[in-house]
């Protein structure tokens, strides 16, 4: 009997107990999870600082001092008088994050999309021609949906129709999102189900079922008593 | 030539669109801009009002962040936009006296959110209502954060749940829990399909990124939305024009490779 | 003073933003080195922000232990114990410490997988409860969801060859149009948001809530 | 209409009942495999044939890079492939470059999932297979590894120096291997650019479901010999090799889940419409 597999089984059943209702067992595993996840990331972050900022500094590379100072400025959030100083490291996060976001959006979301959408619309295969026309209309109508400043009701009926059509394209896209994502979700579920039913962890299942049934009957009895008392 | 190959036309597009946006930022100070109503943003007042009526808290969260930027010390545009919606909610909460909670997965979002709300509360003269313990950080791990938020929402029985930011797979966990405890939900920026079916109000795509400008009701910022519209119209015509030219046998798609 | 408080952050982020964007288009060794260096600094800042998060957790949980907050303080003890244990062992053993690895492999990983498996349950119940064809729009959503679902598993092709064909068509035609349209729109939205943030029209990201 | 009809009851059903049905329905294939039909796609068939075509006793480099979440999706594929490799008496060396947790999976495959096959084939650690564990550094360490293995890896997963492992005496650089199997998601692009492209290593990829559309163009361009993704890929490999195992029963579970989800959507809609149709006259009556 493998202890680690049993622990994994207990963890799985503990988390799944949330499906029955919110209960202390789930809260315990949730607390362990938050603590271990936080600890892992924090240890990783600290080691990153030590290797990438502290070692260069101790070797005499003075430029390594800047990120450490900037990082230390974050702690001014706790000092009332100099609280505004934490904005400087934040400005780093905002500036770089926005710039990376902007250039990424232009490249991936706009430039590559336009480049891929431009095709000769009418081709020899009628089905492909039809598909190209649909893609063209879909692209334009979805973009029209996002036009905000031209007042749609009064000025133009075409824009109104196009933007309504755009919503239907969006709905079809949302449907694909559901269909495509579920495969991964089932894979997660399948992994846990296999763990519970294929390995030694299967002995835990009757215990779990017994606890749930006991709780269920106890709650029922208590409710019955309470209603009798009221009566 | 020090210009990166394959990026010249992209740079031209970027400059053109930036020019549109900057121009309309300037021009909007002179002429009024009418923006079509975005129901999800107009509903925020009513959502906070409902929380006050029920005497239960308002909750805001951004989700896990993006895979690329979430863990790298950077605030991506989606998170910044979520934060702008959050400051608007905070103002409404201060005015109407609702209890406001915020949960975080992205650590670098917490200090600005907390200080912005502190400022808003002091401007509204409700400094005594500001509680720093209402800003809860769980962990940078996606599902640890999700479990934390689930049990938080269940114990606090939040009345209004605002999921604006960058929600990934944890989206369905948060939104479905919110729906089962009967919260009014506003969703934006994430897996739209699940937000669509679980939330009462939904911000799709660009609606979400323009939320900050829309909520500010500042003429200059509203003007920048008009600049974005010019950009979209340009994209449509560029696309139509190049496609038609390609059909006529004139291949201009080479500009993308310069 | 007001400059340092209000405008200096905006100026800094504007300069950094320009550097990062220019580096993408203009090939210059010094610019590239500057850009990668400041991006490395951002990771160090992130690590410090993470420590603020840890402090937040410690303050919250110790407060709840001290005040014996009802229904919470025993969980707080678990969090504090496990978190201190992970951090101490993680620092001493530089993430190769056996205790750290044991906690990580036997608690974090299985619980993570178990929580991820909840996604399937929640999708099932949300689908039953909320996937109702209230309007024609939602009907379109439902149809495409069902077809793509069935087309994704081999059983779809056993039922009828049309199902995988329709799935491919939906994915390659309407879905493509949708994703291109929504992405192009979002790109312009991000551009506008970026310009407003870097120019300081919109300052909530710097932690300034009140407009002046 | 005061009494609740079955449909309006269905409309407001307790979600725990749905979940119970879901678990019960998906548990059936675990004990009684249904053998729902699976078609083998061409990339998967090519992958299996590429490995089958190798002579017995070839040297395989097996790279794995997936997180604990990917474990549930990719490990069945790896198990199916490793089973084939063991049956052909191949020498296998495992390493991972991009995800620290990935070092856990090879020991799991050999010591837990395939322990019977390993024993039957008389496979010994250090002689027939070795785990190098996690080698930090991403792309740079992959390219250094290809040039000279001992430059970046000196000890194995258990901390034993490589010189004490007999199998490792055969290997100095990446060209000493005959074939490469890459699995996971994070490292795919790096492995293709650092190992496949410069050294023209014959390579197959076992990826996660959402990487498939990105990787399929490398397959079409001929850079990789074969490609398969997710649980479906595991089932296809087992189908192609005619060795039913974890993959096929997993695919039964997954297909069951999909069918159940679609059925729930349909039942939910029927009950919604019936409930709406029945309550309509009442609402209109109220309005008047």
Q: What would your notes on this structure say?
A:
Among the domains of chain A are: 1-60, no CATH class; 125-216. Chain A starts with a helix and ends with a helix. Chain A has helices at 3-20, 24-58, 65-73, 87-117, 126-145, 152-155, 157-198, 204-230. Chain A is built from eight helices and no strands. Chain A has 231 residues and is mainly α. Mean pLDDT of chain B is 87; it is low at 67-72. Chain C is an all-alpha fold and 212 residues long.
At a glance:
Chain A is mainly α and 231 residues long. Helices cover 81% and strands 0% of the residues of chain A.
Main attributes of the structure:
heterotetramer; A: 231 residues; mainly alpha; 8 helices; extended; B: 258 residues; alpha/beta; Rossmann fold; 2 domains; six-stranded parallel sheet; 6 strands
Mean pLDDT of chain D: 84
**Overall outline of chain B:** globular
Reported CATH architecture of the largest domain in chain B = 3-Layer(aba) Sandwich
Structural class of chain D: alpha/beta
Topology:
The complex is a heterotetramer of chains A (231), B (258), C (212) and D (288).
Chain B: H1 8-27, H2 39-42, H3 44-54, E1 58-61, H4 77-96, E2 100-104, H5 110-123, E3 135-137, H6 142-156, E4 160-164, H7 171-180, E5 184-188, H8 192-198, E6 201-203, H9 206-209, H10 211-216, H11 219-247
Parallel strand pairs in B: 1-2, 1-4, 2-3, 4-5, 5-6
Helix pairs in contact in B: 1-11, 3-4, 4-5, 6-7
Chain C: H1 2-25, H2 29-66, H3 73-92, H4 98-130, H5 136-152, H6 154-159, H7 162-172, H8 174-198
Chain D: H1 6-11, H2 15-31, H3 42-52, E1 59-65, H4 68-87, E2 91-96, H5 105-113, H6 115-120, E3 129-134, H7 138-147, H8 149-152, E4 179-184, H9 188-199, E5 203-207, H10 212-220, E6 226-229, H11 230-241, H12 246-287
Parallel strand pairs in D: 1-2, 1-4, 2-3, 4-5, 5-6
Helix pairs in contact in D: 2-12, 4-11, 7-9, 11-12
